[in-house]
Write a structure and sequence with these properties.
heterodimer; A: alpha/beta; Immunoglobulin-like; five-stranded antiparallel β-sheet; five-stranded parallel β-sheet; B: 218 residues; mainly alpha; 0% strand
Chain lengths: 490, 218
């Protein structure tokens, strides 16, 4: 009886008539029928009577016990989750009104409101925070970011206009602009800290259901129920627990194979044609007396493919130095260039010929994409290298480089994880390392048991994923989604 | 070899582990750490640009000095680099140490009217290279190549307006090829890349793979 009591209270407060809509419509229909015996009027009266139960359904609020507020899990503390159960009278035109207030506003009776359609906003819409339980489909849920209701006030930082700047001396202008930039950064930090403080406070929530004519609060003891919560930073993203478990398992498999490789160094690893051809390519350059070009692509040292390429470069440079063949490395990024210089220098030293190292063979060609492509193409055409190795991250310049290289008659081996560029490398290069083959290259070329062990672990991981993909497809076809849910990435 | 091997390996391990942990920790401290690291990366990148510039100019100076093949092009490198450095420093109409080069400066004019069109020209060459590569690839020498040719013809024809004017079947057939067999192959490659990336990261993190530090793995 609590919802009805709350309804009576709301209606009393809002001053709406006590007679229900159902009675009003019923009376109207009968009045119409009684006043006129014409067939049209009778039909209209019948329609009104037939529709009466649908139109005039009474609003019922969700169970008070189901209305809860709590810190949203797995976040940085910027949101509070609010949930409530389904009400029997939901549908188009019916909405929930969630009221939010800070402690101060709550005492003053002031609330901010947020309207939520009753046919939307379910807890099941947020599996990244709450998983995939079917019970979540029976709960409405919204997350509230208090800092959006109680925005911190930004301070205005005075910045000189362009006219004022032009009147200043260059030194004074530089000093003033540096000061402005410093103040802006300080203000950004202050606002971020203020948002964290605002989100961390306790907030009060009330919930009402409305159809536009009447409003009914979720009530407890005859009063609208009030729930409270505060946002807190969390230490773990539970939505990524599956990633963590699979990562740890995969790491364990690789570590196991590395240990196994230490005991038994003769592990079988499938042949990779592109890597088998590296020695042949270096030998060809030696026989022809022409240089080897090592083209890094556009990646920086933060890209795993560039690190893999640098690892390959170390082995190629050492082998080439032993054969007294020059290796020229084409860099697009200054840090990659610095690392490549160090790697080639070390490889030459280990090969016993540090004097053969020339830093001009490992230059920064150009930091811009198409300038880089033009410069490398120009050098390829002029110097006609015997071998071109293109390893790393590539974009639109891949075909420009590979097609020009093919026209010079060089043997070309490409390796990239930029899968959109693979269709360009495959027709223009003699061998192409696709995706993970690039990462495997260094281990494959070194033939060191520990590195080969990790490749074996990688292949086992791939087999597991293949089985999961086939099984997941079969189960999804049968309407069971637990494998796809288990492997979902957030 | 402490500073050349041990210290870099410790830095790699600690930073790699922290970056891994960051993926699973939503706490603001973790985000602040990530931002700090990104800032450091940008600072180091800034110094790297000086090294790169030195390398570029040194290489081209050597080419000019030794009159190597194509040394005349190296002169353009000096002309272009010095010209843009001067324009950037003068920074008309804002003046030296004024606002950063932006719309309306002479520096910007040269960038937009020299560098950008040159880049676009090189990019446009791609169309011709693509045609020649396609010509070589799509010769039906065996069954695989014939299948590739057939798929390519369907996709290319399905992507032009004429095909839709003849029948809706052509664009639909192109979409089917792209959305099913092509996407399946692409995802297979992506899965392999992801596993390879994890494996490679582990090798680097635990110091098994050290070639990037210079020299062999051991």
């Amino acid at each position: 009886m609590r919802p009805q009591a709350a309804r009576r209270k709301t209606q009393a407060v809002s001053g709406k008539p006590q007679a229900s809509s159902r009675c009003y419509l019923l009376a109207s229909g009968l009045q119409l029928a009684a006043c006129s015996l014409r067939p049209g009027a009778l039909l209209a009266a019948t329609l009104v009577l037939a529709c009466t139960p649908l139109i005039a359904a009474e609003l019922v609020a969700p169970e008070a016990a189901s209305f809860r507020a709590y810190d949203r899990p797995s976040d940085d503390g910027n949101a509070i989750g609010v949930e409530w159960g389904l009400a029997p009278t939901e549908g188009e035109g019916v909405a929930y009104v969630l009221e939010v207030a800070s402690e101060e506003d709550y005492r003053a009776g002031k609330f901010h409101t947020r309207r939520v359609p009753s046919v939307a906003a379910f807890k099941a819409d947020h599996p990244e925070y709450y998983g995939f339980s079917p019970a979540l489909k029976r709960l409405h849920y919204v997350h509230v970011e208090p800092a959006k209701f109680y925005r911190p006030q930004p301070r205005r930082i005075a910045e000189p206009s362009k006219e004022e700047q032009q009147k200043m001396s260059p030194t004074a202008r530089a000093r003033v602009l540096a000061g402005v930039a410093y103040e802006q950064r300080k203000e950004r930090d202050r606002l971020a800290a203020e948002r964290r403080r605002i989100n961390g406070q306790t907030y009060y929530f009330r919930l009402a259901i409305t159809d536009g004519r009447q409003t009914l609060y979720v009530s407890e003891g005859g009063q609208p129920k009030v729930v409270t919560a505060a946002g807190r930073p969390n230490l773990f993203k539970w939505g990524k627990a599956n990633n963590l478990v699979f990562s740890v398992l995969f790491c364990a498999v690789i570590a196991g194979f590395i240990r196994a490789a230490r005991r038994n160094p003769n592990l079988f690893i499938r042949k990779i044609a592109g890597l088998e051809a590296v020695d042949e390519a270096i030998g060809r350059a030696t026989e022809m007396g022409r240089p080897i070009y090592f083209v890094h692509g556009l990646g920086g040292m933060g890209d795993l493919s560039t690190i893999a390429a640098v690892n390959i470069l170390a082995r190629v440079a050492r082998r080439a130095c032993e054969y007294d063949t020059r290796v020229r490395v084409m860099n697009n990024d200054p840090i990659v260039m610095a690392v490549s210089q160090e790697v080639v220098k070390q490889a030459y030293t280990e090969a016993g010929r540090p004097d053969a190292y020339n830093p001009d063979d490992v230059p920064l060609v150009a930091p811009d994409q198409f300038s880089y492509a033009a410069a490398v193409n120009g050098r390829m055409v002029r110097e006609r290298p015997a071998t071109i190795l293109m390893m790393g991250t590539f974009a639109a310049e891949s075909l420009l480089l590979a097609e020009t290289g093919a026209s010079t008659g060089a043997i070309q081996i490409a390796g990239t994880d930029s899968y959109t560029q693979l269709p360009f490398f495959i027709p223009t290069c003699d061998y192409t390392l696709m995706g993970e083959e690039l990462y495997a290259a260094s281990a494959y070329l070194s033939r060191e048991p520990k590195l080969l062990g990790s490749l074996r672990g990688q292949d086992v991981g791939k087999a597991f994923l293949m089985i999961a993909a086939v099984l997941g497809t079969l189960l999804a076809t049968l309407g069971l989604h637990w494998i796809s849910d288990l492997l979902r990435a957030f | 070899m402490l500073y050349k091997r041990a210290i870099p390996l410790i830095i790699v391990f600690v930073m790699g582990l922290l970056a891994f942990v960051h993926e699973f920790v939503p706490h603001p401290l973790s985000a602040a750490f990530r931002e700090e690291m990104t800032t450091w990366f940008r600072i180091i990148g800034g110094f790297g640009m000086f090294i790169g510039l030195y390398s570029l100019l040194h290489m081209h100076a050597t080419r000019i000095r030794r009159k190597q093949l194509g040394w005349g092009y190296s002169l353009f490198v000096f002309l272009g680099a010095l010209g843009m450095i001067v324009l950037g420093l003068v920074n008309e109409p804002h003046g030296p140490l004024g606002s950063a080069p932006e719309d309306g400066t002479v520096f910007d004019w040269f960038y937009m009217n020299v560098q950008v069109p040159c880049g676009a020209t090189i990019f446009s060459l791609l169309a011709f290279f693509m045609a020649s590569a396609a010509f070589r690839t799509f010769r039906a020498r065996n069954l695989d190549a014939a299948l590739l040719l057939g798929a390519a013809v369907i996709v290319m024809f399905g992507r032009i307006p004429l095909s839709a004017m003849i029948s809706d079947v052509f664009p639909q057939a192109a979409d089917v090829l792209l959305e099913y067999p092509n996407l399946a192959a692409k995802r297979g490659i992506l899965l392999g890349i992801s596993l390879g990336a994890i494996s490679q990261s582990l090798r680097i993190l635990f110091g098994i793979e050290r070639s990037y530090l210079g020299g062999g793995s051991e």
